[in-house]
Amino acid sequence: MTTRNALELKGVKKNFGRAEIIRGLNLEVHEHERHVIIGPNGAGKSTMFNLISGRMKVSDGSIKLFGNDIHNLPAHKVNRMGLSRSFQVTNLFQNMTVMENLRCSLLWSEGHKYAFWKSVMGQQAVTDRAYELAERLNLTEQAEIPASLLTYAQQRSLEIGCTVASGAKVILLDEPTAGMSRTEANDVIQLIQRMTGENTLVVVEHDLSVVFELADRISVLVYGEIIATGTPEEIRNNAAVQEAYLGTEVH
Amino acid sequence: MATNTAAGSTNLLKLWPWVVVPLVAIVLPFLFDSGHAINLLSHMGVAIIFALSYNMLLGNTGLLSFGHAVYYGLGAYVAMHLLRSINDAGGEGLPIELLPLVGAGAGLFFGIIFGTFSVRRAGVVFAMITLGLGALVHSSSLMFTDFFGGEAGLFGYRDEAPSLFGVDYAPSRNVYFLVVAWAMIAAILIYLLKKTPLGWMANAVRDNPERAQFVGYDPTIVRFIQFALSAMFAGLAGGLFVITDEIVNDEAVNALTSGAVLLGTYIGGIGYFIGPIVGGTLVTFLESSLSAYTEAWVLYFGLMFIAIVMFAPMGLVGIVHTQYLNWKAGGWKGNTGARLYILLTGLVGIFGLVCVIELAYHYFRSWDPSAPFALMGVTVDATNALPWLVSFGIAIIGFGLMLFHGNPMLKRKLGAKSDGGKA
């Protein structure tokens, strides 16, 4: 495994008016690792994801994806450079079926761009990939069902599938198991491990049992700053983390 | 809804509308062979192309435009200028059959220009920009008389131009067949466009622009291409209009034309490919026929639009389609009578309402309210209480039975199932 950095944040700041939400963020995510971000509510985890994925502009600092600057690029350009994300609230094409969602997610990465001279259904490569993904997501039986009619857990897995389908090398997952029962959460964790083998994964997660199961490394975000990064074992034994987060955790 | 659902099965049987509709279109002018009827049919064909192009924005991309007539009208003006230059050259130049292509080119040109700054945002911002552009172009049409011909408009002669196939386009029936041919070409192209990556992503951008971004698409570019292509087909309709009417004036670019295509498309049903076809046809028919019977036709038109928006947002085609699905699934078993009863009482109520409106129109608009006038074939006096009482009575009984007798009856019959009923 190389130690190349997939994602690198240097001195990233974000303020909304005078409120400084992210106060000088430094983070290195190695290629092929599963990196989990934890932190108390309001620490800025979601804001950090919004900054990385191009949904928000950074006030200061730089974000690099495989060595290329991506801060302040629009979201679709960030995506084309190899980064995709899921959201805290499920974010799908609700009126489309599972297969249609997957096809739409595959179109750009399969190189079809804005073509208006060829049929989508005629693209065998897209169809094959979509069926393969549906199978890996355990959604083959639901293939022709509109996304809005899936169960919550199925919608979350479809969203992860769409994220992977868009051809991204780095995938950000924002609380993938939020609002799920224990068994559903376990299914999703297995799915994440299955789907993201080759990719680099950055996950925001609240559920500490999920965190320690999933993570290669953990970063702790408190009040807009990373106070510690390390293996699960190191984080568990880190005094500053225990004081700032684990000790005072309200969950 | 119901957009990409026809999953690629190239079942030839499913293509039957593409054969039946043109056959009917070709037969129609022999059944209705008056000059007026054939002109009306031609206008319907133009309206269908225009409405289909409008639905590329509203239905497929979720862009509500209040100024689509801009591209229709500018297409028409440019085509008219070319027709005039052909006329001036003594009938030498571009064959008349290809004139709509000139309109399409003009539509595309202006679509690209105006599209660059109007599609950045969907929703209210887009709607406001189109409204402004519509007003801008309409007022220009009255200011720049060299190009737009002022209030009188511009004339040209379709039979003083060469024809590809040696057809004489003086008889309006021949023009009608040309309209049918172009309408078929446009409908097929617009239909196929929905099947392409662009068409799919237009739906995706409509449903969730953010997700579209995170699979690599720039929503602005998707909207822009759809907008420009839609303007192109609107221009094609405008070019065809030049051939059918041989005159273009500011009406072609004004807000009424923009409004009519919006109403027609919506009434037909924006979620269905045939929605705008039904809507465009219906609106053209009502505009020309209803206006011969009653002064209040615009009012009826507005009431119908409001009723559709409130009670059947999927449009007329949507009503038929949901009822058809329901019927096929056996949802009509044992309650067909109740459904027909609701329909019938509803129609009685509408009849009564129409009588009231006609009476009111006569009473308030006529020089002499007491002058006898024909209401539904009966000569009545609007200053008399009796016709009012009868009309109100019919309306109240009709709607009353529908709402307080028919609806509960259907609900009872459906039992626990609360779906279905009059949409």
TrEMBL record, chain A:
Name the CDD domains on file.
ABC_Mj1267_LivG_branched
* Domain ABC transporter residues, every copy: 7-248
Q: Name one GO molecular function term.
A: ATP hydrolysis activity
Transport among keywords: yes
Which InterPro entries does this one have?
AAA+_ATPase, ABC_AA/LPS_Transport, ABC_transporter-like_ATP-bd, BCA_ABC_TP_C, P-loop_NTPase
Q: Which UniProt keywords apply?
A: ATP-binding, Nucleotide-binding, Transport
Q: What's the domain of life for this entry?
A: Bacteria
Q: Which SUPFAM superfamilies match?
A: P-loop containing nucleoside triphosphate hydrolases (SSF52540)
Q: Name one GO cellular component term.
A: plasma membrane
Sorted alphabetically, which Gene3D superfamilies does this protein's record hold? P-loop containing nucleotide triphosphate hydrolases
Output this protein's name.
Amino acid/amide ABC transporter ATP-binding protein 1, HAAT family (TC 3.A.1.4.-)
Automatic annotation (TrEMBL), chain B:
Location comes to: Cell inner membrane
Q: Which Pfam families match?
A: BPD_transp_2 (PF02653)
How does the protein's chain sit in the membrane according to the entry?
Answer: Multi-pass membrane protein
Question: Which InterPro entries does the UniProt record give?
Answer: ABC_transp_permease (IPR001851), LivM-like (IPR043428)
Bilayer-crossing residues are: 12-32, 38-57, 69-86, 98-117, 124-144, 175-193, 221-243, 263-286, 298-320, 340-364, 385-404
A molecular function annotated in GO for this UniProt entry is: branched-chain amino acid transmembrane transporter activity
Protein keywords? Cell membrane, Membrane, Transmembrane, Transmembrane helix
Quick one: a GO cellular component term? Answer: plasma membrane
By its UniProt entry, which CDD domains does this protein fall under?
TM_PBP1_LivM_like (cd06581)
Its main localization is membrane
Q: Which PANTHER family match?
A: ABC TRANSPORTER ATP-BINDING PROTEIN (PTHR30482:SF17), HIGH-AFFINITY BRANCHED-CHAIN AMINO ACID TRANSPORT SYSTEM PERMEASE (PTHR30482)
Q: What is this protein called?
A: Branched-chain amino acid transport system permease protein
What organism is listed for this UniProt entry? Marinobacter segnicrescens
